Amino acid sequence: MQVIIPIASGKGGVGKTVFTANLGIALASLGKTVILVDLDLGSSNLHTCLGVKNRHAGIGSFIYKKAESLESLLVDTGIPRLFLIPGDALLPGTANLPYFRKLKIMKELEQLTADFVLLDLGAGSSYNVVDFFLMSSSGLIVTSPETTAILSSYSFLKTAVFRLLFRTFPSKSEERNFISEFMTERLEGSGNDFSDLLAGMEDFSQEAAEKCRRQLGKLYPRIVLNMGASNQDLLLGSKLRSITTRNVGIKMEYIGFLKREEGISRSIIERRPFYQNHPDSQFGRAMTLIAKKLISTPIPEAPALFEENEDIRQLGEAF
Ligand SMILES: Nc1ncnc2c1ncn2[C@@H]1O[C@H](COP(=O)(O)OP(=O)(O)O)[C@@H](O)[C@H]1O
Ligand SMILES: [Mg+2]
């Protein structure tokens, strides 16, 4: 069965796409069949990082119903066992994904035949991004050492956990209303954290609180720190992990530390992913280690969630 690995970041420019492309090559080099999916709609550039020409139909075609299936969009990258489903390079402006299309994409992703399906998600915490992230119990968060990037990663994780709990209960349920109200008050500055939410839930319904705890126990995101400038930066990933565990109540794994590698920007210009020529560089070896960890750790089933069509309302409000 294929393993879907969503790759997210709170902030853009942290190297998420470079990471996805190079991780794909590392996994393929270890004998795995890999499909990379560019879900950063509106600013797709995974093809560039892979050195694939921008002349193929992509997810944009699927969204506009020009392509029947995601599988029909598969592009051979020229690297053995590595395939790409491009973004919307030929059809720009699909950043707003209609809800039913999103569901359809998720169903199709689950049907793809490969050992690994890596999703390069858009930056930020919009529900479009977070819902793809929650397709797995163990999505990856890429961050750089910058404080703003670390803080955005933390916000992303909080939003993901809130969305997880929200989608644990059906639409219009009392539990869901309770969670919404809690979050609204919290956003207004009450300063409460998730343990307060669970305590409040407990007063409200023991059973619901228990269900939330079980769901939180199933989430196990993994952090990658990219563009580390010094060994000191290594500690930042651990800090993010411990703060999230303390305040948000989920366990996380710190799966990789990649240093800044000057050859990377040149490799993009030359359209030849860095890992391909330099698997034995420091960056290459760190990437191989991440790939091996992903191969050797079975990923538990994602938490069961209710479908959520709140995006429709959000879209409606935008007009
Ligand atoms: N480990 C690294 N060392 C040096 N430069 C990097 C590294 N990772 C990414 N970059 C550079 O950072 C820039 C942004 O990377 P990109 O993958 O497009 O970010 P994102 O997808 O997060 O927006 C690129 O120009 C790339 O060359
Ligand atoms: Mg990107």
Automatic annotation (TrEMBL):
Lineage: Bacteria, Pseudomonadati, Spirochaetota, Spirochaetia, Spirochaetales
InterPro entries: CobQ/CobB/MinD/ParA_Nub-bd_dom (IPR002586), P-loop_NTPase (IPR027417), ParA/MinD_ATPase (IPR050625)
The keyword ATP-binding is annotated on this UniProt entry: yes
Keywords: ATP-binding, Nucleotide-binding
GO biological process: negative regulation of cell division
Keyword Metal-binding listed: no
Residues of the CobQ/CobB/MinD/ParA nucleotide binding domain: 7-273
Membrane-crossing segments per the record: none
One GO cellular component, as annotated: cytosol
Protein name (record): Cobyrinic acid ac-diamide synthase
Gene3D superfamilies recorded: P-loop containing nucleotide triphosphate hydrolases (3.40.50.300)
GO MF term list: ATP binding; ATP hydrolysis activity
